[in-house]
Amino acid sequence: MLLTLQLALAGLAFGSVAALSGIGLVVTYRATGVFNLAHGAVATLIAYVHWELVVRQDVPEAVAAPLCVLVLAPVLGVLGYRAVFRPLQERDASPAEALVTTLGLFVLVVGFTTVLWGNGAKRAPAVFPTARWDLGELTIRSDTVVQLAVVGLVAIVLAVLTGPTRLGADVRAVVDRRELAQLSGVDVDRVNQLGWAVGTALSAITGLLLAPSLSLTPYGLTLVVLETFAIPVLARLSSLGVATVAGLGLGVAQAELTQVHVTQEPFATALQALQSNLLVVALLAGLLLLPSLREVGDAGKARSFSSRRGRRTSPRRSVVLYAIAAVMLASPLGYPAEQLRQAQAVPGLAVVLVSIVVLTGYGGRISLGHAGFAGLGALFFAKLSSGAPELVALVGGMLAAGAIGVLTGYPAIRRRGLFLALTTFAVGVTVSRFVFESPTLTSGIDVHRPSLFGLSLAGDHTFYAFELACLVVALLVVRNLRSGPLGRALLAARDSEPGARASGLDIGRITLFTFAVSAVMAGLGGALLAQTTLSFESHAFDPVSSSLVWFTAVVVFGADSAAGAVLASGLFVAMQLVTGSSDAALLPIGLLAVLLGRFPGGVLAGLGAAGRPVSAPVADRRLSPTGRALVRQQ
Amino acid sequence: MTVLEGIGITKRFGGRVAVEDVSVAVHAGRVAAVIGPNGAGKTTLFSCLTGATALDSGTVLLDGSDVTSRGADDRARRGLGRTFQRLSVFGSLSVADNLLVGAEATRRTPLWRGLLGLPDRRASGDAGRVDRVLALLGLEDVRDQEARTLSTGRLRLVELGRALCGEPRVLLLDEPASGLSDAETDGLRAVLRAVADDGVAVLLVEHDVRLVLDVADHVYALAQGRMLSSGTPDEVAADPAVRSAYLDRTRA
What we know:
- The complex is a heterodimer of chains A (634) and B (252).
- Chain A is mainly α.
- Chain A has 2 domains: 2-289, ABC transporter involved in vitamin B12 uptake, BtuC, CATH 1.10.3470; 302-542 and 564-577, Orthogonal Bundle (ABC transporter involved in vitamin B12 uptake, BtuC), CATH 1.10.3470.
- Chain A has 30 helices and 4 strands.
- Chain A has helices at residues 2-32, 39-56, 61-90, 95-117, 142-161, 166-176, 178-183, 188-210, 218-227, 230-234, 240-257, 267-276, 278-289, 315-330, 337-343, 345-362, 370-384, 390-412, 417-436, 439-442, 460-481, 484-495, 497-502, 507-533, 543-556, 562-579, 586-594, 603-608, 618-622, 625-633, and strands spanning 132-135, 138-141, 451-452, 455-456.
- In chain A, a hairpin with a 2-residue loop joins strand 3 and strand 4 (455-456).
- In chain A, helix 16 crosses helix 25 (543-556).
- The longest helix of chain A has 31 residues, at 2-32.
- Chain A is globular.
- Chain B is an alpha/beta fold and 252 residues long.
- Chain B folds into 2 domains: 1-79 and 169-252, P-loop containing nucleotide triphosphate hydrolases (Rossmann fold); 90-167, no CATH class.
- Chain B is built from 10 helices and 10 strands.
- Chain B has helices spanning 42-50, 72-77, 95-105, 111-115, 126-137, 152-165, 182-197, 209-215, 233-238, 240-251, and strands spanning 2-13, 16-27, 31-35, 57-62, 65-66, 80-82, 170-174, 201-205, 218-223, 226-231.
- In chain B, the strands form 2 sheets. A 6-stranded mixed β-sheet of chain B has the order 6-7-8-3-9-10, with helices on both faces. A 4-stranded antiparallel β-sheet of chain B has the order 2-1-4-5, covered by helices on one side.
- In chain B, a hairpin with a 2-residue loop joins strand 4 and strand 5.
- In chain B, helix 3 packs parallel to helix 6 (152-165) and helix 5 runs antiparallel to helix 6.
- At the A-B interface, helix 21, helix 22, helix 23 and helix 24 of A face helix 2, helix 3, helix 4 and helix 6 of B.
């Protein structure tokens, strides 16, 4: 009983932070229609600033924490809105574009943090004093009490703000129907700025409170905050009350789980994984079991960042691109082995990125879990190759990835936009936590390079040639996906699902097919990456530093451009070689993704349009919000 | 010969009855039409017949076999072609490719064949059929134009063409004349007649009463989810119940 109480208190400490993070996500979403995927990255950035102020600059805590939470974070939020999201809104961009822009913001902020403070772990200072009170045998920590008080205060303040006040009515009007609110004179701009300010302030609190209990690293803290996505999902993106209860409840439940003991394998391992990953499981379960999220607007159209047309608009451009890519890819074959080795990651990564093009550019589906598919391909290849010929193992790895791809495809048949993005992200995180980071599954793995009909591909030059051959096969598959009856069917399903169905196309079958092809291809790329490094490392297939960054890079270079995906892969590796840091490519990719609002078809399409950015006409800019809404209604 | 038959179709949304115990039949070579004031349940009935909406009770027979529990795509492959009131053309495809999809999709070619780049041996007749339908609908001048660039009136024809390329046994049209000019409506009337004369069963839901009375062989009048009257155009037009519920108001 005492232990249960003690654990509950510990659980409340974490649960209150998780609740604050979840409330912040819901507030921003309800007020602005944007689900901020950069929430965790912002929390991490502010935690670093706080560390810098307190530890390096000796600023007193009583100044540093309020400065971070009440000044710096809201200012960053409002600036981000004005610079990035307001232009999107003025252009009447789809929610899917806004979602990808938050991904770009995520990549940019993480890149910025890494460049300023490096990858090494920091020890973050505690924000609140940690006194302990003994109540009989029960120990109560003062910081837990303060955190709970903060949650209570935030919940009450927000309830009042969105309640029976003028502001509350405005917020609810904007949430209900943005255009109508605008027409009836509500200052939508003010509601948006407030939504971003409150959301980033809450993410700052989350970062400051979480950082001391972890070692502060750019990705580590970010991922923990991303796990709190479970809370807005359980609150179906709408209820602040449910979000608060879900955060506290999950915190307590996770703590109480440590009381459960099982000795029998494999349940013991599974339980251990569950104990440290309850939020991830809750996220996945919430997405699969809840009927649907209460999304604002129609986030269903991935079309907006897939500009592919039935007729290729400029064949000459893509021929030039392919020629450049082919020369660049083949040239390392002339290098000595040592330098060639540095280029070996390019074709493998390119195959993975092309597989994202298949799903997003051609299938019109967002996927934030592709590193899971790639990692499964790598892991199953490595496992199988100890007992079977490498080529058989390679096919086995691809099929394993394909199987998970099909399983992910099932929920995707009826899901779009944010709902699908979160579902694929949850699948990726789950696979990473329960498979890639499971010691029993991934320890003692020996990765070999395959041999082809007796010809060993272990040599660096022959292996690179084999990688190039795999990439060519992947590109041929892509060509088939964009031509003939299959290409027309995919475009038809993307353009109009009711129309496609009425013509006899089975949308479910096409969705599963696209997911399967994409996952099998990702599995091949993952296996190639593992063969490049001759090892399986879980961080190479991380759900954040790989999945999210890869997807962003693909969209930046044109979601429907296979050549763009190959160039993106080259950029990743080249930036790493030049700067020696694997995160060097984050800044340019993040920056370009944030600017995506101005180049809707991706960088290459933007260049093709001779650098003419898409923006609101000058006359439109001079209009008041009401006037703009009127013009847009016509 | 009866191609499509709906028997005792009932559909509620929440507690509200949209369609109650309505039966319709469409015969090969004949044009049937459903009329009724707004909210009469025309669109719901249409959705139940095409498979876009699951019905609460009743049966849908296509060519004599029960398709009640089958999806819209399955019914399409069994010979049910349809158009939409809210246009659903494939905007980024050319007009000819829109029609090609209509011809190809009904065959359910294995997707992996396309993945491997293998040709579809049954595709030989597609190009000819697309050309014939383009000529029938007068769309030859825009055959290679991206569909999204066309006007509403021509897009309705593209949708009709897409459905025709699937070689339907029955064709269901949801307000085909809305957004069409008078000249275009006249063209549509001729096309519908030609399609029916080819042996296709046609069912249309239409607000344009003149078009209905002109082209239909059989008319069903709905009001408040129930069948008010059914018969030849003249019989229905003369039915006092119909006149009070619908016709007089529209003509006035």
